């Protein structure tokens, strides 16, 4: 008879066996377990390249021993001896760990959040292949010189949290992502355009993405030039998400505030930004992959206003950071299995303003419309500075988009340049699976260009 | 099944791979063990140990690929079957893999001082000292973020052609990021150390940590860098990132092999730079973060010249891209872990030494900027950008006022040609870098002398 291995048990059963092994050895213990299956379908150079099935399962154990925190994680889950090793590691490491300033929750009273769609789990690989091919066919029908790449990716993940104080929770999440784009090389001009969307369900209009990609290729064809000067710049929702949000994330993190590395650490309740700027973080938004009923340490999620009408309203915290700062967790304790929970944003929404995109553009006599930049992650995020090369961006002249710019850089600072904005557009658009933003007009940013 | 228990693992993998009708199939089984210490300010915030076991199968039928990854090593034969079915469903126009002799080998690096032989107590003491060395520099130090890590990674590779390679790698690293603050002005600097084979390489570096803290404090009084076109001198660390972004990615065969227009642009023999420019890459270059003996397809590694005397002479390949382009596999197929199929990427990339000195470069620059140390980079192939940590104006042949870090960008077709001086003092950037591509990260080695670039574009106001 074959011996029972952990591979035959459900994730919840493995988690429970691990928790049982900590009995009497630690003051508090928490098991975080995950079980994921992802099926990416990828097209390269206009054709289907590969089919993949990726299964992963692992657990992490956080313990409090003599008032100190220890952590161990593994994907080596064959027999009980592997679980014993995890307990031994976590307990041994706790001797060196930080002093625990929190208690694990004895209940996880979370309201369910709709993040699982059975349709995502049910969609066939053949259907996914068909969608990818349709998107590519549409873009290639527009211009056969475009070398297309596409992806149709689905993933289903089960998360389990169990702790020694009786708290337990589990949820299943699905995510579905479509991406279509390609590269068009003409002479020494390389143009790369990408459109993408991510949801929990399969309700993404693949052809709308393909049409959007074609539209972007079309408006990007003419090349325009811009001079080195301080000029008004409009960031599209994608531009906001990729360039600006990481600066807000760092500055509003409870951990940066506690350490004093955030420029906003002493600004709670103070108006720092334009009064039209409101930023919320809300993991309860249904059908968005970054949402969840509770965070990775079992704190139920709820909406938080981080910046309200330009005023710094709240910082976001996990349990330990909140304990150190003398405040409460906000349900932002997120983690990778290999590390302790730490504060991280979930679904970030920037409230829309009152101007149409057409009017924002129409009001710019000479400036830029920026969709994406490269190198912006490379700066000093704590200072609020951002600077990078414009990847997809357009020149605005006399209130009209006249062409794509190249060899152009944009630089600014979220604190100095967002005090008085030129305006926010009246529609906030979803970008990927966790950000919603309007277009934002900066009155004046540093624009540098090759002459 | 486990990589520790089985002399018969080789037979089991060979059995699992046999008789599926694939053109080619391979299995990787991977074990990692890692220890990390993470500091928040002066407090040791996190001590963790991670132990992973996982595997993957990759198969190709008619040029279409199937890939399956997993944590449980039960039922390997069925996993191979699934990968082959997937590959068959993809299909294509035939499999063309460059030939590589099957190898049977065990690679275990000789460690000078094994981090596993050092107590956690001692590691913590070392990091406590580094953190204190930073804080002691100035009352304007606001905080530090520091970390120590050591890891062992063992990958067992078997393919349907008879290769069986059991390869282990190690890495130990320590880093201290220092933040200085004056009101809303927050500046940072860092020190980072690493080694593939010696714990002692990260020991005794207190002076360098103190220097990083002094740099962060000095940046508080530096002006923001101006925007526009300048003559720029890059230190070796920044120049190496420049080589990686400006040119390295375009030499990766997967970017070229199915892209006719790019093939025309990246044709061997084409001039990209002045005769003083030489760029090479290779995992066979020892002692760097991207050093290893076999890549993740079992191909022995080598050193590949990419640009010789300013002319494109080579590129980096997997077996597939080499096969399709009629060139030889170069050992550049790398996977972040068993959760990923290997992709073509750089290993240790360097600009080779020239004959100028740093002093000559400065003296021969009327108005320019000297940029030091790096914060990463990014490329869209034609255009690329990279960040520097600190800078100085150069006026009339002399270093002048200090500037804060900034971002530079360039264009493939003009910037390489604009490198007009290459220094004679070659250096590998000690901690190397982490390169992201196709959703996978890989440690890379970066080496260069000082270089001077004409008409480099800087971001700023």
Features:
heterodimer, A: 451 residues, alpha+beta, PmbA/TldD fold, six-stranded antiparallel beta sheet, 10 helices, 23% helix, B: 461 residues, 2 domains, seven-stranded mixed beta sheet, 20% helix, globular
Helix content of chain B: 10-25%
Domains of chain B (count):
2
Largest sheet of chain A: 6 strands, antiparallel
Number of strands of chain A: 21
On the 0 to 100 scale, the average pLDDT of chain A is: 95
Provide the number of structural domains of chain A.
2
Span between termini of chain B:
60 Å
Which class do the helix and strand fractions of chain B yield? alpha+beta
Low-confidence spans of chain B: none
Structural account:
The complex is a heterodimer of chains A (451) and B (461). Chain A is α+β, with helices and mostly antiparallel strands. Chain A is 23% helix and 37% strand. Chain A folds into 2 domains: 118-220, PmbA/TldD superfamily (PmbA/TldD fold), CATH 3.30.2290; 223-451, no CATH class. Chain A is built from 10 helices and 21 strands. Chain A has a 6-stranded antiparallel sheet. In chain A, helix 4 (125-142) packs parallel to helix 5 (206-220). Chain A is globular and about 75 Å long. The mean pLDDT of chain A is 95. Chain B has 461 residues and is an alpha+beta fold. Chain B is built from 10 helices and 22 strands. In chain B, the strands form 4 sheets. In chain B, strands 1, 2, 3, 4, 5, 6 and 7 form a 7-stranded mixed sheet that branches. In chain B, strands 9, 10, 11, 14, 19, 20 and 21 form a 7-stranded mixed sheet that branches. In chain B, strands 8-15-16-17-22 form a 5-stranded mixed barrel. The longest helix of chain B has 16 residues, at 120-135. The termini of chain B are far apart. At the A-B interface, strand 2, strand 3, helix 2, strand 6 and helix 7 of A face strand 1, strand 2, strand 3, helix 2 and helix 3 of B.
């Amino acid at each position: 008879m074959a011996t029972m291995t952990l591979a035959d048990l459900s994730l919840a059963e493995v988690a429970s066996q691990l928790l049982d092994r900590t009995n009497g050895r630690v003051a508090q213990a928490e098991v975080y377990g995950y079980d994921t299956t992802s099926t990416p379908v990828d097209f390269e150079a206009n054709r289907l390249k590969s089919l993949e099935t990726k299964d992963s399962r692992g657990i992490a154990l956080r313990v409090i021993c003599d008032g100190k925190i220890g952590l161990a994680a593994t994907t080596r889950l064959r027999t009980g001896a592997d679980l014993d090793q995890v307990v031994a590691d976590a307990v041994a490491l706790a001797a060196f760990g930080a002093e625990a300033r929190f208690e694990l929750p004895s209940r996880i009273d979370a309201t369910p959040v709709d993040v699982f769609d059975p349709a995502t789990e049910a969609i066939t690989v053949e259907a996914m292949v068909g969608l990818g091919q349709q998107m590519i066919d549409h873009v290639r029908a527009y211009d056969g010189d475009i070398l297309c790449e596409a992806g149709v990716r689905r993933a289903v993940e089960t998360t389990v949290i169990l702790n020694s104080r009786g708290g337990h929770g589990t949820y299943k999440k699905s995510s579905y992502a479509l991406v279509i784009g390609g590269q068009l090389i003409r002479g020494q001009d390389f143009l790369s355009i990408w459109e993408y969307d991510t949801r929990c369900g399969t309700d993404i209009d693949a052809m709308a993405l393909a049409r959007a990609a074609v539209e972007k290729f079309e408006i990007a064809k003419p090349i325009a030039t811009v001079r080195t000067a301080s000029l008004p710049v409009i960031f599209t929702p994608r531009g906001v998400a990729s360039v600006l949000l990481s600066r807000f994330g760092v500055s509003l993190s409870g951990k940066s505030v506690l350490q004093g590395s955030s420029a906003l650490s002493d600004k709670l309740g103070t108006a720092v930004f334009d009064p039209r700027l409101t930023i919320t973080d809300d993991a309860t938004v249904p059908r968005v992959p970054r949402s969840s009923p509770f965070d990775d340490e079992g704190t139920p999620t709820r909406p938080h206003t981080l910046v309200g009408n330009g005023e710094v309203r709240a910082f976001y915290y996990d349990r330990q950071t909140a304990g150190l700062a003398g405040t409460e967790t906000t349900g932002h304790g997120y983690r990778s299995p290999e590390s302790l929970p730490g504060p991280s944003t979930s679904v970030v929404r920037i409230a829309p303003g009152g101007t149409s995109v057409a009017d924002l553009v129409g009001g710019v006599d000479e400036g830029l419309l920026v969709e994406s930049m490269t190198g912006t992650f490379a700066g000093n995020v704590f200072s609020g500075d951002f600077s990078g090369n414009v990847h997809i961006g357009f020149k605005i002249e006399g209130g009209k988009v006249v062409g794509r710019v190249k060899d152009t850089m944009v630089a600014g600072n979220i604190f100095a340049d967002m005090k008085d904005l030129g305006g926010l557009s009246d529609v906030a658009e979803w970008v990927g699976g966790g950000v919603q933003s309007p277009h934002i007009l900066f009155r004046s940013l540093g624009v540098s260009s090759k002459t | 099944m486990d990589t520790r228990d089985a002399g018969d693992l080789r037979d089991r993998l060979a059995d699992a791979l046999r008789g599926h009708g694939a053109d080619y199939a391979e299995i990787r089984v991977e074990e990692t063990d890692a220890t990390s210490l993470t500091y928040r300010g002066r407090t040791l915030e996190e001590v963790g140990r991670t132990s992973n076991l996982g595997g993957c199968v990759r198969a190709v039928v008619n040029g279409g690929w199937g890939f399956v990854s997993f944590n449980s090593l039960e039922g390997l034969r069925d996993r191979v079957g699934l990968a082959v079915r997937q590959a068959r469903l993809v299909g294509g126009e035939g499999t063309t893999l460059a030939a590589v002799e099957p190898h049977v080998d065990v690679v275990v690096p000789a460690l000078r001082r094994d981090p596993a032989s050092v107590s956690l107590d001692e590691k913590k003491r070392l990091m406590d000292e580094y953190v204190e060395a930073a804080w002691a520099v100035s009352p304007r130090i606001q905080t530090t973020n520091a970390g120590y890590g050591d890891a062992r990674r063992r990958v067992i590779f078997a393919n349907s052609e008879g290769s069986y390679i059991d390869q282990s790698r190690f890495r130990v690293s320590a880093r201290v990021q220092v933040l200085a603050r004056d009101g809303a002005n927050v500046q940072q600097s860092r020190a980072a150390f690493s080694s593939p084979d010696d714990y002692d390489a990260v020991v005794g570096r207190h002076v360098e940590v103190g220097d990083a803290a002094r740099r962060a404090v000095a940046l508080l009084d530096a002006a923001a860098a101006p925007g526009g076109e300048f003559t720029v001198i890059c230190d070796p660390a920044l120049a190496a990132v420049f080589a990686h972004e400006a040119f390295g990615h375009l030499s990766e065969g997967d970017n070229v092999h199915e892209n006719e227009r790019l093939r025309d642009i990246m044709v061997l023999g084409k001039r990209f730079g002045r005769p003083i420019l030489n760029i090479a890459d290779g995992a066979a270059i020892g002692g760097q973060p991207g050093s290893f003996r076999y890549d993740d397809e079992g191909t022995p590694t080598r050193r590949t010249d990419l640009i010789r005397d300013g002319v494109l002479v080579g590129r980096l390949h997997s077996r597939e891209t080499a096969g399709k382009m009629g060139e030889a596999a170069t050992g550049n197929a790398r996977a972040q872990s068993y959760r990923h199929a290997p992709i073509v990427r750089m290993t240790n990339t360097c600009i080779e030494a020239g004959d100028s000195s740093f002093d000559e470069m400065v003296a021969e620059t009327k108005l320019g900027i000297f940029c030091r140390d790096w914060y990463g980079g990014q490329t869209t192939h034609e255009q690329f950008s990279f960040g520097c940590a600190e800078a100085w104006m150069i006026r009339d042949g002399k270093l002048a006022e200090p500037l804060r870090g900034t971002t530079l960008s360039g264009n493939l077709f003009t910037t390489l040609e604009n490198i007009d001086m290459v220094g004679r003092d070659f250096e590998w950037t000690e901690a190397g870098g982490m390169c992201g591509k196709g959703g996978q990260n890989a440690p890379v080695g970066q080496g260069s002398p000082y270089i001077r670039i004409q008409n480099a574009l800087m971001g700023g106001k």
